[in-house]
Specification:
The structure is a homodimer of 562-residue chains.
Chain A lengths: L14 H7 L18 H10 L4 E5 L2 E4 H17 L8 E4 L4 H13 L3 E3 L6 H11 L3 E4 L1 H4 L14 E4 L14 H5 L17 E7 L7 E6 H15 L6 E3 L7 H4 L1 H8 L2 E3 L6 H11 L3 E3 L2 H8 L13 E5 L6 H9 L2 E9 L4 E5 L11 H8 L4 E2 L5 E5 L14 E6 L6 E2 L3 H7 L5 E9 L5 E5 L4 E4 L2 E4 H9 L4 E11 L3 E10 L7 H11 L8 E4 L12 H9 L9
Helix pairs in contact in A: 2-3, 2-10, 3-4, 8-10, 13-14
């Protein structure tokens, strides 16, 4: 174990430093009439009010709120015993297990930003994030730990790697076992010690339009408000039973770890998307809410074991990444599932707008309903600033036709990109966060996306930066020029396709290009097909990716991504 | 009209000045990732999202959100044209009319603290509040204006008095008519210009334990968070239809003007408590929520015109001021009404705790249910700090038996008393707000009040300071010594009774004492009976009011007040 005194304070994340760089005011301290907002108080309250209620279900295991709080206190106490102090980063790489949920409270309790890493990333990408975030500890699922063994030598800040035992997977005897080591740790009481609500709470790495992933910093205030907003939007009460189909590593599960806990509801954890298991859990646990990309919903609706009668109680499901199609909506209605379409980005703590239903919509036919529900909608109640603007930051007319960029501002916009003031300034130009997404404003105030940021593919709910894929392929010795675009795919919505011009005389095949990509980036980011050709260019020599996209989507109804 | 330039900036309320006196941190300014919290954004959003939905119902009149927003903008624009600037105070004296609701947004929009005055106060008390708050404008209901005519000469800061026309009451031709004057005012856009979320939003005068009423300062942040907390606790959605039985002048209607608007629900306004009209409105408007003191609920349950079948949809009703009795609960259940018991003070924006129901409570018999529901409960999700402490600020054991004082802290504790730093410091001693109420902490974290602050009577939901009543009676030339205590009353719960020792030779009668009181204080505060006697005292000569109370309550089951 490393001597903790070696870790200097300068390395710790300072909220005020990031905040003041981003022009955010300083807020401090608690007093009689002021408490810094933090999701920690939601656990504090549910521990007190709902101590004996079921907080977590995972396989045969059930934790009541008192037990959940104990696990949170133990994880925090253990990490503290390892030397973790406020401002230190702690990384977690895990499916939606109870441990991952516990980490969503333990790190905030320690005021140590949580770095929850996408489980689908390639080992090299994980290493990049660990090093960039400067995380000191990694808590990792045994199944996800193995592929990282060869990477460990490249980790520059990680001092401790502990594996989180899970009854569903084999533990590795050579690993440090979290449960064994944490067993004797002091249990830290669940009590907010936050002195500044703009303290960073988590860093979520996201594929932007350029190069390497960027670390989106959430604050305690933003997460606490977003959780209240989710409670209001989803009508979460203590009867809520939330099924964890949405990955927790996605924008901290859209803040649902904190929202469901605030309501005193039940988290039903889930390692993987397995339709029969999902059907079983919905019935057995009387699930009331879950969130999933349309891809997952389609998988459920078309599964041979899909129930023939609607679920009871009715389910509320939020979906994003692509608008729900009429077929999907119909399929969901048959299952007793009410769909809410929403849209946001990691930079907005997940959802920023939702398609709030209006009176009369339920009287529309299937196509009409799909048309209105394909809009991304209106802001949440806790964060209302959203515009669609032209290049000079003027609002486009609210005519449902004039396109502009969607920009946001307010309490659920990130504090900034971690250790990247230039990228933060670029994203915040003009005093608004620039989504890069192109949309229209309808006369009734609902936005509808018309094109995504041109360099992002959303495949099965995951963002893929085409530029990142291109950069990987440029490392192939035979590749002279490459352009990656999203092409239609029945299951994933769209998938990356590479258009490659080979160096003169080179002999690379489609298979060898794809194989090369797999060695460098996550499998879901790799092109599913490769076409060798000359790339269309402008007069000045700029590659015209939009021409490639147009050709591929010809004759297909392009579903605008949400 | 007064020249507005004469009004100096020094007279304006400064949030930071009050805040820093109370040790509250400074918070400032908006940025990309930070917006000052304010209930104004809730109207801003509902205007955008629910513009055509019914916002207000009042008699035959209906306002959609666009119309409500227009009235808010007009009132703000008009007051601005009168010279009202941020920090100026504007007073309203009105029943629960749409104007009163409009004022709850217009003044916050102007950043001019709203002083909503108890409509049951005597003219002299109204004058005290107008003068103490330094209000520059009074908006008043014609019916309530008349008794104030003789007082106007005593008003030191009021520059404009405008009467709010109401189809249900006659306008007075001699008065300045708000609608006539505001008709041509510019309409201020609904857009928050707040630069500091701790800016005072309203000043609510409350009868404390000593002397004159004190002005409780709410902030924009506190009101915005409390509104979100109410939404969560009451499951307010855009289907909510809220009937205004609770006076808006009570802690700004427990923040419900902002909570219902945030949800995009409907406000059903009501001039007075008239059971047949309430039954009619519940049915016609499909009311889902209202709040009322047990006195009002009893009045409804025992009314000859009470419906014989439960309301559909079911109603959620919050009650406070006294715990619901088994009889009341039974009566409410027959009406399809689910009761939530809550407790708080003006100093906590209204409710601070609520009796969150636990699984299994619905299986208890009527007496058992009343027993658990007679507890005041647990903190709201947005403000969780509450303790029951002994004289040295140590927590009493959570045994449901050991009594202590209920103290609170957090985002729904007032900023302080307006222009009264000594009273603020006294109330905030030890870093907690002292309620003065005596309670126990149950093992499950629920508080239950065992005695009110000894010098407060709660009569029909209204606070009465016994000391204020005593002070009024001490002005009677025949009174040598007086003690006022609450005595049981079938309808009001309790009412004030005066124990008087006359000066030697004096001949005052019970009737003359009561008449004297009525000339000085609100009718509901006046003693309902007077007993002439020697007062019980301690060895050191201190009057033992508890002995008088004990005698009066002997043989009666004392219902502990909430």
């Amino acid at each position: 174990m490393t001597n903790t005194s070696e870790h200097s304070d300068e390395m710790r994340v300072s909220g005020p430093a990031i905040a003041s760089a981003a022009g955010v005011p300083e807020t401090r301290g608690a007093s009689v009439s002021y408490d810094p907002l933090t999701p920690i108080v939601y656990l504090e309250r549910s521990l007190r009010v709902f101590g004996a209620r079921t907080a977590v279900v995972y396989g045969d295991r059930r934790l009541c709120y008192a037990e959940l709080a104990e696990e949170v206190g133990r994880m925090a106490g253990f990490l503290e015993s390892l030397g973790i102090r406020p401002g230190d980063r702690v990384a977690v790489l895990s499916p939606n297990t109870p441990w991952h949920l516990v980490a969503h409270f333990a790190m905030p309790l320690l005021r140590a930003p949580l770095v929850s890493i996408n489980t689908r990333l390639a080992p090299k990408e994980v290493s990049y994030i660990l090093n960039h975030s400067g995380a000191r500890v990694l808590l990792v699922d045994p199944e996800l730990a193995k592929p990282l063994d060869a990477e460990r030598a490249r980790w520059s800040s990680i001092e401790h790697v502990l594996e989180l035992p899970d009854p569903e997977v084999a533990s590795r005897p050579e690993a440090r076992d979290y449960v064994v080591e944490a067993g004797s740790a002091p249990i830290k009481p669940i009590r907010s010690e936050l002195d500044d609500e703009l303290t960073p709470l988590s860093i979520n790495y996201t594929s932007g339009t350029t190069g390497m992933p960027k670390g989106v910093v959430f604050t305690h205030r933003g997460a606490a408000l977003n959780a209240l907003g989710q409670m209001a939007a989803m009508s979460l009460t203590s009867d809520a039973v939330f099924l964890w189909t949405l990955p927790m590593f996605h924008c901290n599960g859209w803040c649902m770890p904190w929202a469901v806990t605030a309501a005193g509801g039940t988290h039903v954890c889930l390692r993987s998307i397995d339709p029969p298991e999902i059907f079983r859990l919905i019935g057995q646990e009387r699930v009331t809410h879950f969130n999933a990309a349309p891809t997952v919903l389609l998988m459920l609706a078309s599964h041979p074991e899909v129930p023939q009668t609607p679920f009871e109680p009715r389910l509320r499901v939020c979906t994003g990444g692509a608008p729900p199609s009429p077929t999907l909506l119909e399929g969901m209605e048959k299952l007793g599932i009410q769909i809410t379409h929403l849209y946001g980005l990691t930079e907005t703590y997940g959802p920023h707008v939702l398609c709030e239903p209006q009176p009369g919509w339920d009287r529309l036919d299937a196509a009409g309903r799909a048309r209105v529900l394909s809009r991304q909608g209106v802001p949440y109640v806790h964060s209302v600033y959203l515009r669609v603007v032209d290049d000079e930051m003027r609002d486009v007319p609210s005519d449902g036709e004039t396109m502009g960029e969607v920009v946001m501002r307010g309490n659920n916009v990130m504090l900034g990109y971690f250790d990247d003031p230039e990228a933060t300034a670029r994203a915040f130009r003009g005093g608004w966060f620039h989504s890069g997404d192109v949309g229209v404003m309808h006369p009734d105030g609902y936005i509808e996306l018309r094109d995504r940021s041109k360099d992002i593919i959303i495949s099965g709910g995951e963002n893929i930066s085409t530029i990142e894929v291109e950069n990987a392929l440029y490392e192939h010795p035979d590749v002279q020029e490459v352009a990656v675009v999203g092409v239609p795919h029945d299951h994933w919505g769209e998938v990356p396709k590479a258009f490659v011009t080979l160096r003169p005389g080179a002999q690379a095949t489609e298979a060898s290009i794809i194989e090369f990509a797999r060695a460098h980036i996550a499998r879901y980011k790799c092109p599913k097909s490769v076409e060798f050709c000359e790339l269309p260019k402008t007069a000045t020599g700029k590659i015209q990716k939009f021409r490639l996209r147009e050709r591929e989507w010809q004759g297909k109804e392009r579903r605008i991504q949400g």
